[in-house]
Structures are given as structure tokens and as C-alpha cells.
Amino acid sequence: MKLRDTLLGNFSNEVKRVVGQKMDQPAFLEKIILQLAGKAREQLDLDGEDKIGIFIPNNPVGVEELKNNPDELKVGTLTHYTVAIAADMLRKGVSIQVADDVSGGISVRLKDDDMVIDFTDEALSALLLEHLQPRFRTLLQGIVK
Question: Residue 54's domain spans which residues?
Fold first, then answer.
């Protein structure tokens, strides 16, 4: 019983770790933002006003990162990242902003409807665990009794 609980806890921690690592990758976040922005522009009638806000984390650049890449002082990754996406794809109805309340991943907020779509690493981990943990538990019960 204790072994099963330990394995379930380790499985949960591993899922959270993997999701967190993936959500920290700028290229992955860029793909998510571009897909969301593209779908929003296709499916919603955006009349040039900022109706959708995409909020990204305000991750400060660490000392070690600055040692390895001193250009970060001039152009922060989030600033460069935001400008590149905004210039390429998000011309109407979508704004990208930095938010202190988003620690990892992104949050999409529809302004008129007061609706929030949470793509943070915590939310995605919880969603994955809802589906994966029962399957893992079933697998364990067949092996560990």
C-alpha cells in the first residue's frame, strides 16, 4: 500500500516536471500562442479592438543566463519574443502582455466575456493527471498488491 502511494506520488511529480520543462521552452510557447491567435482570428469576429489578451509569464533573466548570453540585458527574451509574434501574426484583436500572475505557460483572456483559458503548467499537469493517473493506478494494481 505504501509502495503504491509512493509510486503514485512520484508519477504525479514526474508529470508536473515534464510539463513544466516543456512550458519553459520558448519555441513551444510560440507554437501555442500562434495556434491560439490564428484560431481566434479565424473563429471570432475581431474588429481591430483588443478583445483577446494572451498573457505570458514575467520570468526575470537569471544571473547565469546573463553570463552565458549578455545580450539578454539589451533585449529580454520576452520582449523580443512578444514583438516577433505580434509583428508576424497578431495585428487585429489580440494583444500579448506580460503578467505577474502567470508563472509558467500562458493564460488567454477574452475581455468582453470575462472568460479565462488557462494554459499554465499547473493547469495542464492537472488535466493530464486526471486522465493518466487512473490508468497508472490500474497498472500498479495489476503489479503491486
Answer: 2-143
